[in-house]
């Protein structure tokens, strides 16, 4: 039943969301520190180092995080086969990645000094390189927790990691006053600590064994995910490179801060996808065609939710930035609406991309997403020189739309699902109307602005009920489930 599917998804989504949101909240605790102890140029250095860590992680993992997320369902019924598979992948990725990082550390200075001339290779980028390598085992631990739907354990480790890195960064940045270098040191030492956490979790799943056939099969699936993930990196991070090229590090810092606020939307949609992907895979592999009506309805509810959350992100971003930062960073709010829109579109992409993974058509996915990345580069070249960080944000949103449309067309040909287009259309229209109203509202001081926008955002759910997006039966089931849940809570409280 759909209510059971929603309960399962809600439980795991909540588990993943709690961890990621708490992690983000702890991360936001660093913003007042960053904006007071670091200059915008320092923040730009951190952003560039983050780019290096992100792109290296793509290549060092060889697409095997995605491969494990798919092949787990082929082997989980046989513990010995699963252990052979996981051992093979961990051993292969570990040895190849270690060798690659040694070579990059020895020979990379001449390359990086050309690509990122404003950031010294030693020590900044050296730390970024080895932070990426040390994070590989934790990536494997996280994907296993995800496919096993152990969302609260995943979140506990995630929150612990953020707490540790926060304490370390405060020590190096505030106490030792080491600036951007201190932040990178904190991330590096945290990665060492959680390397051992990951190995402790993985010890029951891996052994010293290697299966050549499993290696070939998994890498055949995973290698096309490198251009796919590289495309994601190009879309979400090369805007900083172009801003650095056409503007300066201060603009990169402003854009990065605004992007950080807008990416809260990405944290929410990604957390839901952590629950959605294993749910989709397990249900599609066991029920086949019978699962499609459930997928369709859940997509409708998901759209209603992420647009509501996105409106909240946009409405309150300016006030939050003014509260949490100093005047030098205030203009960063301008990019938030475009970044939120981009990640709403990316959230829609999450709902349709799993069909491609299910049928192991990763080459097709790589073709679509890499085409989107090339399109993004073209848009950045056209828009950033003229419009600066606004151009970068607009390019990101347009690219996510392009990629979503391509993946939607492909996935619906491979594994057709009859989505509720009329209801989804109504949801989008209400969202656009509410956002349009916000553009013509007068500006007040921060308390007044928050009150007015809090009232405005309530128009969204009201509008959904006015135009009858939800059926009477759905409303009835929702009320019954809410009543049962409330009664259970009251009984537990009384006891």
Explain the overall architecture.
Its main location: membrane. InterPro entries: Poly_Biosynth_Transport, Polysacc_synth. It is a multi-pass membrane protein. This protein has 495 residues and is mostly helical. The protein folds into two domains: 1-28 and 239-495, no CATH class; 38-223, no CATH class. It is 85% helix and 0% strand. The chain is built from 20 helices and no strands.
Primary descriptors:
mainly alpha, 20 helices, 85% helix, membrane, 495 residues
Mean pLDDT: 84
Give the ordered list of helices and strands: HHHHHHHHHHHHHHHHHHHH
Strand element count: 0
Largest sheet: none
The class by helix and strand makeup works out as: mainly alpha
If you compute it from the alpha carbons, what radius of gyration comes out, rounded to the nearest whole angstrom?
A: 23 Å
pLDDT under 50 segments (min length 5)? Answer: none
Give the proportion of residues in helices: over 70%
Oligomer: single chain
By DSSP (H or I, 4+ residues per run), the number of helices equals 20
Share of residues in strands: under 5%
Shape: globular
End-to-end gap? 31 Å
Question: How many domain units?
Answer: 2
């Amino acid at each position: 039943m759909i209510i059971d599917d929603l309960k399962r998804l809600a439980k795991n989504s909540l588990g993943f969301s709690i961890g990621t949101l708490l992690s983000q909240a702890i991360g936001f605790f660093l913003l007042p520190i960053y904006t007071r102890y670091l200059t915008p140029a320092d923040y730009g250095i951190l952003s560039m180092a983050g780019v290096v860590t992100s792109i290296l992680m793509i290549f060092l993992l060889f697409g095997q995080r995605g491969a494990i997320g798919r092949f787990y369902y082929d082997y989980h019924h046989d513990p010995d086969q699963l252990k052979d598979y996981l051992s093979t992948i961990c051993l292969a990725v570990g040895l190849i990645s270690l060798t690659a990082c040694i070579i990059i550390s020895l020979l990379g200075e001449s390359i990086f000094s050309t690509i990122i001339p404003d950031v010294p290779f030693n020590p900044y980028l050296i730390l970024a390189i080895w932070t990426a390598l040390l994070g590989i085992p934790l990536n494997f631990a996280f994907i296993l927790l995800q496919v096993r739907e152990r969302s609260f354990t995943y979140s506990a480790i995630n929150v612990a990691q953020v707490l540790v890195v926060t304490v370390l960064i405060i020590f190096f940045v505030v106490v030792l006053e080491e600036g951007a270098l201190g932040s990178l040191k904190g991330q590096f030492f945290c990665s060492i600590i959680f390397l051992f956490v990951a190995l402790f979790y993985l010890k029951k799943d891996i052994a010293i064994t290697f299966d050549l056939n499993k290696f070939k099969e998994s890498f055949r699936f995973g290698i096309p995910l490198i251009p796919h993930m590289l495309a994601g990196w190009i879309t979400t991070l090369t805007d900083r490179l172009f801003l650095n090229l056409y503007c300066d590090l201060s603009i990169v810092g402003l854009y990065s801060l605004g992007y950080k606020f807008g990416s809260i939307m990405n944290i929410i949609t990604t957390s839901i996808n952590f629950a959605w992907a294993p749910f989709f895979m397990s249900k599609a592999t066991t029920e086949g065609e019978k699962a499609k009506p459930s997928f369709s309805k859940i997509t409708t509810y998901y759209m209603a939710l992420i647009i509501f959350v996105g409106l909240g992100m946009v409405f309150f971003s300016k006030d939050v930035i003014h509260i949490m930062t100093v005047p030098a960073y205030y203009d960063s709010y301008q990019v938030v609406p475009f970044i939120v829109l981009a990640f709403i579109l990316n959230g829609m992409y999450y709902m349709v991309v799993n069909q491609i993974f299910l049928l192991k058509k990763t080459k097709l996915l790589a073709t679509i997403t890499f085409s989107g990345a090339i399109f993004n580069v073209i848009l950045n070249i056209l828009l950033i020189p003229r419009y600066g960080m606004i151009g970068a944000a607009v390019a990101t949103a347009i690219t996510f739309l392009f990629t979503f449309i391509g993946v939607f067309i492909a996935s619906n040909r491979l594994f057709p699902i009859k989505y509720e287009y009329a209801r989804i259309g109504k949801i989008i229209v209400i969202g656009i109307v509410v956002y349009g109203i916000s553009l013509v509202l007068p500006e007040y001081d921060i308390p007044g602005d928050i009150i007015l926008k809090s009232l405005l955002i309530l128009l969204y759910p009201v509008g959904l009920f006015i135009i009858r997006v939800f059926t009477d039966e759905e409303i009835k089931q929702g009320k019954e489930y809410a009543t049962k849940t409330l009664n259970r809570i009251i009984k537990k409280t009384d006891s």
